[in-house]
Amino acid sequence: GTGEAAYYGDGGRGVRAGLAEPNGLALDAEERHLYIADVADHRVRAVDLSSGTIDTFAGMGVAEHGGDGGPAREARIFGARAVKLGPDGTVYILERQGSSLRAVDAENGIISTVAGTTGRGYSGDGGPALQAVFDAPKEMAIDPDGNILIVDTENHAIRLIDLATGIVTTIAGGRKGGGGDGGPADKAGLDRPHGAVVGPDGAIYIGDTNNHRIRKVVRRDLA
Asked: Which of 92, 101, 106, 184 could form a disulfide with 115 if both were Cys (CB 3.0 to 4.6 A apart)?
């Protein structure tokens, strides 16, 4: 980045490229590539750390959701807020405005939607992730089994997508508030969480933003 809120520089040095509003970052397993979720530019960029070269990995810079079944670079990504890599190398992209989760196949570069309808709301727990509705999610994390945790910020919830079944559930929060310590996480209150990370033992740490706290969840299925 040059400090200018713009899009340019593909094929050149990353330090000379324009970025609009970079948010999420991820490294691949070999730490050879740095992925950058540029939410205002509606793209994910990738930097080759050995050469310093930057290129567009996914998105066309168009503020809408589309392009499933085609190359990630030709897809439309509506607010690329976060990016993470799964254990198999799949690149997951969380859309803030699109309220959905995309996946880019590590082998062929094809993009698909794995969660969300692109509508905004709060529904779908216990059913297929593709039919679930999120509200401007801001971050995600991947647990030791490769399942994806969505920080569903405006729903004050942490939601789990089981990749084996495709089912989504709320595992923490789901209501605005700050109480619930010592009780079931899905009965607790959260207030616009913006971050989450999974520890090596599977415990989930939540950045409970408007409560000015870090909350910890020990999942019952891992206890």
From this structure: 101
So what CATH class is 1-119?
Answer: mainly beta
User: What residue spans define the domains of the chain?
Assistant: 1-119, 123-223
One fold for 1-119 and 123-223? no
**Residue in this structure with the two tokens 């324009």, named with its chain if needed:** 18
Q: What is the largest CA-CA distance in the chain?
A: 52
Give the burial class of 112: count Cβ atoms within 10 A of its Cβ; 0-12 exposed, 13-18 middle, 19 or more buried. Answer: middle
Give the tens place of pLDDT for each residue, 117-173. Answer: 999 999 999 999 999 999 999 999 999 889 999 999 999 999 999 989 999 999 999
Whose structure tokens read 């000379």? 16
Kindly list the strands in the beta sheet with 91-95, ordered across the sheet, starting from the edge strand earlier in the chain: 80-85, 91-95, 100-104, 111-115
Distance CA 57, CA 82 (A): 14
Nearest Cα neighbor of 58 from 12, 97, 106, 99 is 106
**Cβ atoms of residues 153 and 169 within 8 Å:** no
Domain 123-223: assigned CATH number: 2.40.10.500
